[in-house]
Amino acid sequence: MPGVLVFTETKDGKLTKTSREALSAARKLGAGDVAAFSNERGAADDAGRYGAKKLFVASIGPYSTETYAAALEQAVAKMQPSILLLGGTSNGRDLAPRIAARLNVGVASDVDRLEWTNGKLRARRPVYSGKAFATVEVSSTPAIATTRPNAFPAEEVGGGPAEVVEIAALSIQPKAKLIETKIPEAGELTIAEADIIVSGGRGLKEAANFSLIRDLAHAIGGSVGASRATVDAGWIDHQHQVGQTGRVVSPNLYIAAGVSGAIQHLAGMSSSKHIVAINRDPEAPIFRVADLGVVGDLFKIVPALTEEVKKAKTG
Ligand SMILES: Cc1cc2nc3c(=O)[nH]c(=O)nc-3n(C[C@H](O)[C@H](O)[C@H](O)COP(=O)(O)OP(=O)(O)OC[C@H]3O[C@@H](n4cnc5c(N)ncnc54)[C@H](O)[C@@H]3O)c2cc1C
To answer: Where are the beta strands (DSSP E) in 152-290?
Structure first.
């Protein structure tokens, strides 16, 4: 059986959580052997641990769409997989349609369920801002899909290092070049991969008050999220924005403070496993999706919660 090829990414030499999730999802499909693609040989150990038998390596440095698309296309040509999976990160979402267009095949994006039946890939994807689900079947070969971060569990299988297969150096001249890479502040996890997110909205009143959200996020081991209103106001960077025009997240715990819960915000977080909302307006729409709603002043509740978390950790 031709198997499944997974585009993976690394951080500090280790496979990212989204890549580990995509590898685990690939293995569970039962569509043959799993192989990974990486720009680092060092990913072989991790790739093997998460079920990859082979690792296609292209030494092409940091991400650039054109170089990576060309290298990934080579790996696809070598392996001839039935399925190509990419984690739904910025790079994965950038690469998937490009590679699909090159190969003239179909792609299902942002999927949260996958199934391989009768030689066809079936995928479930949230549509209409998360209000409904569409089940799609990709009938071309390879079938391509991007996996929603946090939707698939990452499970080690304890395999030895994946066998490394080098992809020959490419002589393409990319039209775009990387000028600068901005690393997020130390200790700040990206919201796409976080298990816990604490988000702040316009109820914070001003930029400086995001420190309340940061304090709680750091105490609880989570990332900082934000509504678009706060991003538009320049209180926080766009990379923190949750929602239709920000990131779609599915953490285990999503805490929203001073966020009204506009439909465009809900589109980005309503698939979170547990939602806690803090808002002084009992009619705020966020309460409709919350598992636990706290009606009150965030300026009292958030610091008190941070203190309790700190106490619980030390006690
Ligand atoms: C095309 C389009 C795309 C969009 N994409 C996004 C997106 O990706 N993400 C996104 O978030 N929005 C998006 N929006 C904007 C969205 O419609 C809302 O305007 C936005 O989400 C509101 O942000 P907010 O909840 O922070 O502010 P508000 O709606 O102003 O809500 C502030 C909340 O804080 C509460 N509050 C105030 N003071 C306190 C206090 N002391 N204690 C507790 N609670 C308090 C209020 O009761 C209120 O509910 C989009 C809009 C459009 C048209």
So the answer is: 163-166, 196-200, 223-226, 253-257, 274-279
